[in-house]
Amino acid sequence: MLEKLKEIEEKFVDIENRMAQPEVYSDVNAYAKLAKEQKELFPVVEAYRRYRRSEETAEEARELLEAGTDDPEFKELLREEFEEARQQMEKVADELKVLLLPRDPNDERNVIVEIRGGAGGDEAALFAYDLYRMYNMYAESRRWKTEIANINETGIGGIKEVSFVIEGEGAYSRLKFESGVHRVQRVPDTEASGRIHTSTVTVAVLPEIDEVDFEINPADLQIDTYRASGAGGQHVNKTESAIRITHIPTGTVVECQDERSQHKNRDRAMKILASRLYEAERQKQEAEVAAERKSQVGTGDRSERIRTYNFPQGRVTDHRIGLTLYKIEQIMNGDMDELIDALMTAYQAERMKAAAE
């Protein structure tokens, strides 16, 4: 591992030197490419340098102890310094093992989030809206941008289904664990007897794929235009700007009506279609290659129940890692980092375990 880390540091230094050269500095595209590569290597190099500093400290303390000293206080100080440096080396070594795991190539992509009401009728639609609001507030807290592609609302403030894009650095890396069935247990506002109802909502999180990244045969597409529906007033679209694209071989249908122009709607719909087809193909390949080794945090299968939101008890339980947090109000208001960090840690631990086998 140390030899590999040394090579990574040498590459990092080489990139730094190349970026300082006038011919590269003046070339915007070349400089941006190197800067991106440097940014990806930085966490590994920074951790490796911390490891080396601790290693040097431990070696110096060990040499002084072996040389001998008549001062018992100084000897004790050296022992403490050696032990502290050794513990720091172990800690950083664990960090480096995680950092050296192969990266998910989609981690830095934007994401497409699709939320659909499941079992539970109106209550499921209301909770679908609550989840949509939760993800929007989480995106806002991380200064990510959100943009609706398509939404189908109910008359009582719920959502039958919504597709929206979240644009921001690392969006997919943090939200990819949200795919699956989300279950809610609470007393609906419409329930006169105060009985707790259980409803479900399905969430799918897809990496946003450009059309150029995933080839689609135009002959396989049926493209229809229609007039976008709205809440009335100035938001009703008077022209047929909404787009519906059907991928005939798979029957996949994508609708996009949020953009004001047909061209923008078509571009957005094609990106969503490419992302859905890409995700379906990715899951098929993963199932074929590693059916016997499912990640602890789940496969991302939309049929898998991943989390329960119990409002009477004020708790959120993620069933994949057995984590229960008694902070449902904060989570529903977008405070999701503790939950997501725990899922990422479990995912990394599972990958390290798989790599060691």
SSE topology sketch:
Layout: H1 2-19, H2 22-25, H3 28-67, H4 72-99, E1 111-117, H5 122-141, E2 145-153, E3 159-167, H6 171-175, E4 180-186, E5 197-207, E6 221-226, E7 242-247, E8 252-256, H7 262-289, E9 305-310, E10 315-318, E11 323-325, H8 328-332, H9 337-356
Parallel strand pairs: 4-9
Antiparallel strand pairs: 1-3, 1-5, 2-3, 4-5, 6-7, 7-8, 9-10, 10-11
Helix pairs in contact: 1-3, 3-4
Query: Tally the helices: what do you get?
Result: 9
Helical percentage? 40-55%
The assigned structural class equals alpha+beta
The beta-strand count equals 11
Q: In angstroms, what is the radius of gyration?
A: 26 Å
Mean pLDDT over all positions:
83
Range of strand content: 15-25%
Shape: globular
Spatial gap, N to C terminus: 17 Å
Lateral strand order in the biggest sheet: 2-3-1-5-4-9-10-11
Largest sheet: 8 strands, mixed
Helices and strands, in order, run as: HHHHEHEEHEEEEEHEEEHH
Detail the poorly predicted runs: 231-238, 291-302
